[in-house]
Fold Ribulose-phosphate 3-epimerase.
Amino acid sequence: MTHPIRIAPSILAANFSKLGQEVRDVVDAGADWIHLDVMDGHFVPNITFGPDVIKSLRPHTQATFDCHLMIAPADPFLEAFAKAGCDIVTVHAEAGPHLHRSLQTVRSLGKKAGVSLNPATPESAIEYILDTVDLILVMTVNPGFGGQKFIAAMEEKIRRIKAMVGDRPIEIEVDGGVAPETAGIVAKAGANVLVAGSAVFKGDSVEAYRSAIEAIRAEAEKARG
Ligand SMILES: O=C(CO)[C@@H](O)[C@H](O)COP(=O)(O)O
Ligand SMILES: [Fe+2]
């Protein structure tokens, strides 16, 4: 199954003092989804924001809210993120022993269920949950911070996941170090959702956001052929 290329700017790299405006600007600039990085200072060595901030951003756009939970445990908080207005809730395979249950819970809340893999986690970790998942997020940096360098070995992992997914309607997302220079590599390997934080928000205007989003999309579409 072929999904469209989607560009999902991560607001981790946005100006936190005016997040609502940043969300509106990046959607005006052509963003398909808004990527929301939730970090707990425990699963990853950084702290960002929780459901209340997401709830306050929800009225600013109708764009899909793509929530990347870097928290452990995740299960006690799934309902809060669903109620805050997330459309996709992604948990890490490494965040708890009951991944299948976490994904079922997200779906039972009426949301799309995503699973994320750290760079060191093999794709075999998700072999038996493929029918319970709507999105696979392949981390192409170690989670916790924006602005890191794309890990080249992840290209092969994306390719293997694409093959594993087969005909299932699962979207494959990549996150970390995505820029025009790496967009073609990940799209050719099989990813269709490209998260980009610093590559988009390094600009200082809607026009700068737009040209970054367009450059990433163009490289991804060109590589797909
Ligand atoms: O989940 C994460 C980091 O843990 C990401 O979503 C980053 O926010 C991506 O930032 P860039 O690498 O694009 O700057
Ligand atoms: Fe992320």
Q: What stands out?
A: The longest helix spans residues 206-224. The chain has a mean pLDDT of 98.
